[in-house]
Design brief:
This protein has helices spanning 5-14, 23-33, 42-45, 86-98, 117-126, 143-153; strands spanning 58-62, 103-107, 130-133. It has 157 residues and is mostly helical. It has a three-stranded parallel beta sheet, covered by helices on one side.
């Protein structure tokens, strides 16, 4: 849903309040996504990110270089399982947020084998990014991954 600047400014002013969502946003959520958010409070339902002069809407982050498979057609199994240190991952995700990134694609190698994947995913989510994971799926059965995705993807009131 795309909104004009005046509506963005209205949301920015009331984003931290415990008041109800504006009527136009209730209608928009119902029309655009089929969601009834009439019981939601602003501070629980809406994250208003600051404007950025850079306006990068989408980014791909290769969180590590390694893969846990050894497919014949792929070179990644030969690469080391390295990525940035944890502090640099935090810094990079902050830079991406400040650049205006809304859609973040996490890839690798295999992103789910990265030791900091869960912390990085949570941080990107808290920064208001929509996250896509490019994975071979080999770790999706792990309880900690299932719990993370469930925790952050379930609509909470």
């Amino acid at each position: 849903m795309q909104i004009p600047r005046s509506m963005y400014e209205q949301l920015a002013l009331i984003a931290d309040s415990s008041g109800p969502l504006p009527a136009w946003l209730l209608d928009g959520a119902r029309t655009a996504w089929g969601l009834d958010v009439s019981d939601a409070r602003m501070c629980e339902a809406v994250l208003v990110r600051p404007e950025s002069n850079l306006n990068y809407g989408r980014a791909t982050y290769e969180i590590n270089k390694g893969c846990n498979f050894n497919c014949e057609h792929c070179y990644l199994a030969e690469r080391k399982f390295e990525g940035l240190p944890p502090d640099d991952k935090v810094r990079l995700l902050g830079l991406l947020r400040d650049a205006g990134v809304l859609w973040l694609q996490l890839t690798g190698g295999e992103p789910l084998i990265d030791r900091d994947f869960m912390d990085s995913y949570r941080l990107a989510y808290r920064h208001g990014m929509l996250i896509e994971i490019l994975t071979n799926g080999s770790r999706l059965h792990r309880p900690e991954i299932i719990d993370l995705l469930h925790e952050l993807l379930v609509w909470r009131r």
